[in-house]
Amino acid sequence: MRILVINTGSSSIKYQLFDMERAVILASGLAERIGEEQSSLRHKAFIDGQERLGQYDRAIADHHQGLDLIVELLTAPGVGVITHKSDIDAVGHRVVHGGERFKAPCLIDEAVIAAIEENAALAPLHNPPNLVGVRVARQIFPQAAQVAVFDTAFHQTIPAEAFLYALPYELYQKHRVRRYGFHGTSHWYVTEQTALFLGRPVEELDIITVHLGNGASMAAVRGGRCIDTTMGLTPLEGLVMGTRSGDVDPALPFFLADQLGLGLKDIDRLLNKESGLKGLCGHNDMRQVIEASHNGDEKAATALAVYAYRIKKYIGAYLAALGRLDALVFTAGIGENAPQVRELCCRGLEGLGIAIDPARNLAPNHGPRLISPEGALVQVLVTPTNEELKIAQETRKLLNGGR
After folding, report:
1. How far does Cα 373 stand from its chain's mean position?
2. 123: pLDDT strictly greater than 90
3. DSSP string of 182-206?
């Protein structure tokens, strides 16, 4: 079964093509700046153990043309991995917000599209472009099954005491105001991969997963089921991120409006685009923050400390929520590649059974690996995430009747 996984943004299409029978990735790529004068499409094919590159550097008018060009590269001599678009059996779509309705992946039909549209108010920057990808893919691949995998689905096992805000209850009843959480596909994949690596049934494990990229979130997972997560109604809540503030005093917007005269759009931009690491030290790329900190930049050092401290607080909170802890797992770009961040997050937690072995922490990252000392009470791991592969796996599972 060949499954194309696509993640559609407002001006981009990220894709990977998998051969699920051979368990290999055939191709991947990214179309960017769709709708602009200088668009680009970078394509990488894996043929006979070699990487072959293809690209377009010209205006891509819309997502339909972008996906047409992707098909052109997937079938082109030299960089193609299929002979015709009909060779694609299914398309797996990343959809950010499924609300309370979608607790698992599902086949896309008109009713599902309507429900995704209804949830657009909860994710106005993500669900509409995700739907564009769905509609275009249905036109271009009419023979293929179309499956939606929701970022929020893994978190739908969170109990009411964790997902309800202390607001008038009718806001939840009538307007669905509650904690939803995001990065669910990553937390789900990493949970399963960690259990495989440890050689234990996932149902027996209590795990804290720490997804650290430009966006960042954590999840408390008991027996393979999420019981709490740091992101909330939107992806703004929780950890300090590249440009997002994470947790702040809820009265802060009123202060900014009263004292600085900022409007709602200004405040939204400040909290989502101008805060986090960028707001604290001017850099939203963790690599730049670490480098500046090493070079004596006090703001960068403080930003790094704030970033790690917030994670450390949630580690403690989630250990309390779980009652016990088998594994603490770091993943995503920063979680997998920044040993200093991992060390800072765990420093001082030895009394909770959490410690890092310096040599293991600095070792190259090749698949899941332990970074805690031998005999540690809590096993600390680095487990690479692969959201696209998880989407492909769930798409195949759904089409095979749950197998």
Report:
1. 29
2. no
3. S-HHHHHHHHHHHHHHHTS-GGG-E
Is residue 208 domain-shared with residue 355, that is, in the same domain?
Answer: yes
- In terms of Cα–Cα distance, which of 218, 165, 159, 164 is closest to 187? 218
Any known ligand binding at 336?
yes
Q: What percent of the chain has pLDDT over 90?
A: 79
Note whether 360 and 222 are same-domain residues: yes
Q: Do the annotations mark residue 286 as ligand-binding? A: yes
What is the greatest pairwise CA distance in the chain?
A: 63
Examine residue 162 and state whether it is found in any structural domain, yes or no: no
Sheet holding 2-8, edge to edge: 50-56, 40-47, 24-32, 13-19, 2-8, 90-95, 145-150, 106-107
- Residue 318: pLDDT band by 50, 70, 90 thresholds? very high
121 shares its domain with 254: no
Domain containing 276 — which CATH number?
3.30.420.40
Q: What is the DSSP letter of 373?
A: P
Q: Pairing mode, if any, of strands 327-331 and 206-212?
A: parallel
What type of residue sits at position 266? D
Residue 341 placed within a domain: yes
The answer to the question of whether 242 is labelled as a binding residue is no
3-state secondary structure (DSSP) of residue 15:
strand
Q: Is 215 annotated as a binding residue?
A: yes
Which residue segment(s) compose the domain that 102 sits in? Answer: 2-150
> Amino acid letter at 82?
I
Read off the pTM. 0.92
Catalogue the active-site residues.
151
- Pair 90, 4: CB distance under 8 Å: yes
Tokens matching residue 262: 């900022």
Is the same domain home to 299 and 232? yes
